[in-house]
Amino acid sequence: MKTLFNNYVNTFKGLSTEVWWLALITLINRAGTMVIPFLSLYLTKSLNFSVSDVGWIMSAFGLGSVVGSWLGGRLTDQIGYYKVMFFSLLSTGILFIALQFLTTFTSFCIGIFLVMTVADSFRPAMFVAMSAYSKPENKTRSVTLIRLAINLGFSAGPAVGGLIITGLGYSGLFWVDGITCIAATLVLVNVLNPKSTKILDEVKTKNPKSAYGDKAFIIFLFAMMLFGIVFLQYFSTMPIYYNEAHYLSEIEIGLLLGMNGFIIFAFEMPLIKWLENTTFTKSGLMLFGAILTGLSFLILNLTSWVGVLVIGMLLMTFGEMIAFPFSNAFAMDRAKKGNQGEYMALYSISFSIAHIFGHNMGLQMTNQLGFENTWFVITGLAALCVFLLFGLRQYLNANKKRKAKLVEEEETEILWI
């Protein structure tokens, strides 16, 4: 056990102090967004909005996320990641506190749109900051550490939020959300001020390439959008499936979903560390992760045995653990060619779009087509994602061979001269 523990701890070694501080700020920020899991309940119970109204508000939520990701990327390239993170965290805190005073449908739609626009401008800036604070060989593990912080934040947030609602009501939830964002701002100012931090991999491109003209990156973005739509079913349609098709109780569903978080916490960093030392390419690993996630839906239609739910969750969890860190690292590698903020913004937007369409599409399909047909459709989307990632790998390999041939021809020409 001691050897296993030491090996686990060793997988975190080599990451810079700045990356650890960034993970802590992300943890505080994500744990602080505890309003989000209770938003639907707040809107229907406290403000007496209809389910249809809530649907439109969630659309405003998703649109704000898309605009925020794009805006954050633009501002990061223009004024730098530190200023964007500072203004995003501080403004989000203030806006969360103000959100509780909006009680009409129109005002709340505008309010949640503004909150998400400001809040999600943090994401591209954070990714660029993480890239700057990480050595090239540590970037994938740095992404994994940030993911651990996000998962811990999302796990702790709802639990603490439930206690706050019980003791202080929904008003207390907005206040605590706002204060935690402001607290994260204070941590940022004290530990990641540009005057005191050490940049390990700053990329300055004289003639930056636009992400919109990067063919490989565009293919990658479409694949990630599809992967996001598939993956998000586990947090919207799947719990309903567990209850209605397999009659699992809320406690059993919670344990099954909790298994996902525990496995990620315990095994993701060692798994990524091991995969980094293999000869597998990032595109190949993303492809494998997408295959595992697609299979997690396909096997649900093969048997009515309840144990298949555990197998499906395991397949999805390992698919997620492989696909997400290496897709993020792939995006950061491509970003070195041009405007880093623009690249990371588009990467974030691909998942924001998945949020806009993924949940609603899955829920509508289960209602119209039933669970079995829905899982076949979702498997089809996963297959399309795999096809795009396979095409991406072939495209990258062809480019690599073409460049190698050009270098060889240049060397031959020099020898003749």
In terms of quaternary structure, the protein is single chain
Shape estimate: globular
What composes the largest sheet?
none
Structural class by SSE content: mainly alpha
Distance between the termini: 64 Å
Number of strands: 0
Query: Helical content, roughly?
Result: over 70%
Q: Please, what is the average pLDDT? A: 81
Query: What are the secondary-structure elements, in order, as H or E?
Result: HHHHHHHHHHHHHHH
- Tally of helical segments: 15
Proportion of residues in β-strands: under 5%
Give the low-confidence spans.
none
What value does the Rg take, in angstroms?
22 Å
Give an account of the 3D structure.
The structure is a single chain. With 417 residues, the chain is mainly α. It has helices at 2-10, 17-32, 39-46, 51-79, 81-99, 105-119, 122-132, 139-191, 215-232, 237-246, 250-276, 282-298, 308-335, 340-369, 371-416. The model has no long low-confidence stretch (mean pLDDT 81).
Walk me through the topology.
Elements: H1 2-10, H2 17-32, H3 39-46, H4 51-79, H5 81-99, H6 105-119, H7 122-132, H8 139-191, H9 215-232, H10 237-246, H11 250-276, H12 282-298, H13 308-335, H14 340-369, H15 371-416
Helix pairs in contact: 2-8, 4-5, 4-6, 4-7, 4-14, 5-6, 5-7, 5-8, 7-14, 8-11, 8-13, 9-14, 9-15, 11-13, 12-13, 12-15, 13-14, 14-15
Quick tags:
single chain, 417 residues, mainly alpha, globular
Q: How is this structure best summarized?
A:
The chain is mainly alpha-helical and 417 residues long.
